[in-house]
């Protein structure tokens, strides 16, 4: 078995409530803080700018024309915002889900969003394709809490973390956004619950395993090549960025399931240097 390389992380940003959805865009790290009702960007020195104010903001991405697309957690909504931070359109998709979560905009504008669907006492998961008019078409069903979303370098393979399935799934995406049946990209074992993810230029996937307090780099088939252990909190979501694409930003939130529902959390972002750069947002 190949040994796993340990990497150390250092502090980058403190003082947020519940960070999510990190993306490198326009030479800054963007991320959401839904419990604070804000979308932030951070420069390389950790300076923060409030870019948008939006309650429950979770996932984010940009359409080819620069429009910022935002999803929410604990509400089934998709929003558009302009360069000035003004929310210009809001779409309610509660007819098909009780909540959205992470969101991914592909370079050609295809936009995917997690859908959580209440089914009696259970929650089932699906992936929706968001149209330019805010309509959402379901393109994958039967998932056990889909979460992080990212395209491999071929831009046709969508990798999705299945939090309650303890694995990463892969779908082939058609030009119209339809998804194939899922295959298993990596089985992480029953104790790990993958959350946010990002992809590097050789197809490695960095993923936060939130409740085991670790960020892992995994490759197709499930081999873990690198690991970053955090000292406390949930390992929520990574993003690759920086001028050379080789700074790995790590969103960590110190909370519990009950605390998150009650709005109680303390968040921070760490950073580490890695060898393989990212493919871009996310």
Automatic annotation (TrEMBL):
SUPFAM superfamilies: Calcium-dependent phosphotriesterase. PANTHER family: LACTONASE DRP35, LIPOPROTEIN-RELATED. This is SMP-30/gluconolactonase/LRE family protein. Belongs to the SMP-30/CGR1 family. A divalent metal cation binds at residues 20, 147, 195. Coiled coil: none annotated. Binds 1 divalent metal cation per subunit. GO terms for molecular function: hydrolase activity; metal ion binding. Its cofactor is Zn(2+). Substrate binds at residues 101, 119. Pfam families: SGL. The active site is at 195 (proton donor/acceptor). Gene3D superfamilies: TolB, C-terminal domain. Keywords: Hydrolase, Metal-binding, Zinc. Residues 19-250 form the SMP-30/Gluconolactonase/LRE-like region domain. The keyword Hydrolase applies. The keyword Cytoplasm does not apply.
